[in-house]
Amino acid sequence: MGRVTDAKELQADCANCFGLCCVALPFAASADFAVDKAAGKPCGNLQADFRCGIHTRLRERGFSGCTVFDCFGAGQKVSQVTFGGKDWRQAPDTARQMFDVFPVMRMLHELLRYVTEALALPSAAPVHGALRSARDELDRHTRSSPEALTGLDMAAVRHEVNESLVRASELVRAAVPGRRRNHRGADLIGARLRGADLRGASLRGALLIAADLRGADLRTADLIGADLRDADLRGADLTGAVFVTQSQINAARGDADTRLPPQLGRPAHW
Fold first, then answer.
1. Distance CA 69, CA 262 (A)
2. For 116, how many CA atoms within 13 A lie in the half-sphere containing its CB?
3. What are the distances in angstroms from CA 88 to CA 81, 91, 123?
4. Which residues pair with 217 in a beta bridge?
5. What is the pLDDT along the chain (270 residues), one digit of tens a residue?
6. Furthest C-alpha separation in the chain
7. Strand, coil or helix: what is 177?
8. N- to C-terminal Cα separation, the chain
9. 34 phi, psi to nearest 5 deg
10. Which residues pair with 46 in a beta bridge?
11. What distances in angstroms separate CA 35 from CA 16, 38, 227, 245, one per listed residue?
């Protein structure tokens, strides 16, 4: 595999993964998952070839949570690089370690995805040097041994990288005239924000579950970590929004009038 910051390396390639998200991670019966599943236990829908037996029917079968999950390419990295293409069924003695490594690798790849985006933002040029250093260090971590990966202090890694990401966000949003709203970490579950002017707003980590954002102006807003499950984005404008991922968009509701950043696709279920 090439440099992890190549675009394709930060996209899930399920054909080269050992179904790690279907085994390593736990989920609880809810609106997102039809059943309970413990960490390390294969999902009942996982087939012998590591493919999902109901992939085309996940939403109708009650597994909408699976349709919005994104490993950011961590699955194939752990499967093919960290463990050299040897799967957990062939080598059951490595299974537990592989399952422990996967969520760590996912966090590293998610950070790399944000850093890569920030490096493509001309307004963030003053912190590109720091971002390049962060990218190289994260890339080095992703190529470490299983023992080194599970021993990483991810809270410290995330904190260090986040300083540069916050600064990049500030530089991008500074171009928006007037007062910019700060809703960082805010509880906006079910909030009535129809037609709201949220240009350049900080919505980092905000809970926007089922929020009414119809026709809202989210241009150049920072949406890193925002929970958009069932948020109504019909007619909303997310042009230039930073640090928004495909999985966030997949979890929301929208329509043909929702304007998205060019790197993101319109979900089929809209």
1. 20
2. 21
3. 14, 5, 44
4. 197, 237
5. 555 556 789 999 999 999 999 999 999 999 899 999 999 999 999 999 999 999 999 999 999 999 999 999 999 999 999 999 999 999 999 999 999 999 999 999 999 999 999 999 999 999 999 999 999 999 999 999 999 999 999 999 999 999 999 999 999 999 998 888 999 999 999 999 999 999 999 999 999 999 999 999 999 999 999 999 999 999 999 999 999 999 999 999 999 999 999 999 999 889
6. 59
7. coil
8. 34
9. -75, -20
10. 52
11. 26, 10, 22, 26
Structure tokens at 199: 């240009």
The answer to whether 210 and 190 are in contact (CB under 8 A) is yes
Per-residue burial over 143-154, b if 16 or more Cβ lie within 10 Å, else e, is: ebebeebeebee
Q: Per the structure block, which two tokens stand in for 153? A: 């202090």
DSSP-assigned letter for residue 26: -
pTM > 0.90: yes or no: yes
The phi, psi pair for 47, rounded to 5°, reads -90, 175
CA dihedral in degrees (161, 162, 163, 164; nearest 10)? 70
